[in-house]
TrEMBL record:
Lineage of the species this protein comes from: Eukaryota, Viridiplantae, Streptophyta, Embryophyta, Tracheophyta
The species this protein was found in: Eragrostis curvula (weeping love grass)
PANTHER family: F-BOX DOMAIN CONTAINING PROTEIN-RELATED
Protein name from the UniProt record: DUF1618 domain-containing protein
């Protein structure tokens, strides 16, 4: 792995965690991610090429796919060190499997929202890593009429940032969409819901024949952005346009063609300041 600083073109190579390099057959890396450094540097920043951490979630090779340990690489000045954090107290699945080996894992990384990286565990447990402190915490999703089993289809589960900057979670099951929010320090609750088949009636491109079979009416996620998601029905993409759903009002509207996941907006300076080779020709 390499940690890069694009503006300065500096990078630092990181070897695999000791648990992997010493005995690569017992463990595997489930995911890895960059976290702020342990302490502020000279200018008050908590992350830089000499002050950062990389977390490696490790699973047992023959286990159930749930991370049990995090190997932490800490960069401090010109040196570095490895440490480990046990995850057994937070990575706890609340359902038992009847089959030892199943085709789908019991954990799924949902991504980083509002400064925390979320991992979903089968049974309704959500584990959050605070990317500034490196601390883990867990919370519970409420019981629903649908199963929280990751093998369910066409159930899908995603994380997104709300209009207020706080994290939201939403599920799609057939044509129903539910949005969950969390009170400070508490568990998650249903905040909004919408029946998409009803909400999309009358929109340009709507064709009731697309939804004769309920399985064909399963909406799919295309893009997330602050306060909204963009969905489509992939069964007949030429006959059905994409739609956007406002997570605060749950209003549904036609959407532009999908442009991929919106991470952040960036506007390059003009005239360019990074390229000096042809400065005299601009």
């Amino acid at each position: 792995m390499a940690v890069c600083e694009p503006l300065t073109r500096r990078y630092r190579e990181i070897l695999p965690p000791p648990a992997i390099s010493n005995n690569s057959f017992d463990h595997k890396i489930y995911s890895s991610y960059l976290v702020d450094g342990d302490a502020a540097d000279a200018v008050g920043g908590r992350i830089g090429m000499s002050n950062f951490r990389v977390f490696f979630d490790l699973c047992d090779t023959l286990g159930d796919g749930v991370p049990h340990t995090t190997a932490v690489f800490t960069a401090a000045g010109d040196g570095s060190l490895w440490s480990e954090k046990a995850l057994d107290h937070v990575m706890v699945c609340r359902v038992e499997r009847t089959i030892m080996f199943q085709r789908h894992p019991r954990a799924r990384v949902l991504g980083t929202i509002a400064g925390s990286r979320y991992t979903y565990l089968e049974g309704g447990t959500l584990v959050a890593l605070d990317c500034s402190t490196g601390e883990f915490s867990s919370s519970q999703l409420p019981a629903t009429k649908y199963s929280w089993d990751l093998g369910s289809w066409p159930f899908s589960f995603h994380a997104v940032q709300g209009h207020d900057g706080d994290p939201r979670l939403f599920i799609l099951f057939f044509d129903e969409m539910r949005v969950f929010s969390r009170s400070r320090g508490g568990d998650w609750r249903v905040e909004k819901s919408v029946q998409l088949l009803e909400a999309t009636r009358g929109l340009p491109g709507y064709d009731p024949s697309l939804f004769k079979d309920k399985l064909q009416g399963a909406f799919k996620l295309l893009t997330i952005g602050p306060g909204f998601v963009i969905l489509n029905t992939p069964c007949h993409p030429a006959r059905w346009s994409t739609i956007s759903v406002d997570l605060e009002t749950m209003e549904v509207a036609p959407a532009a063609d999908d442009m991929g996941k919106i991470v952040y907006q960036c506007e390059l300076p003009w005239p360019p300041t990074l390229c000096t080779r042809y400065a005299g020709q601009l």
